[in-house]
Amino acid sequence: MGQHTDTLRQGYEAYGRGDLDAAAEAWHDDIRWEGTNSTRIPGGGVREGTDAVKQSLVELVQSFDDFAVSPDEFIEQDDTVVVLGHSEGTVRGGDRIKVPFVHIFRFRDGKAERVQVLTDTAVVAEALEKAGQ
After folding, report:
1. Burial of 89 (0-12, 13-18, 19+ CB in 10 A)
2. Alpha carbon distance 93, 128 (integer Å)
3. Domain that includes residue 68, residue range
């Protein structure tokens, strides 16, 4: 396992505990977070800077009664780490969903400077719409 993978594992663990500040320690202050392109998913779009990224994650989680992100595999090469995993949770007033994700982290000086988030937006959007969100 590489240094960047270790950094990300700590960040995912902190996020799982609900500690966004600790999770953000793995990010550059000027991080660029490229979330889903769907306007039907809260927190989507491009966000820049740690405060904007944290707000995006809060927006997403507020749509769920419970929400968890589980990284299943880390693939590191040079300054890039690809994380394969799944997110699952119960939509507020709705169904329980589980969707796969791919998170691509680009590092500079030991911290993530760019993140791309890929997931099954149709499943999430449909569950949110069904619950009236």
Report:
1. buried
2. 9
3. 3-130
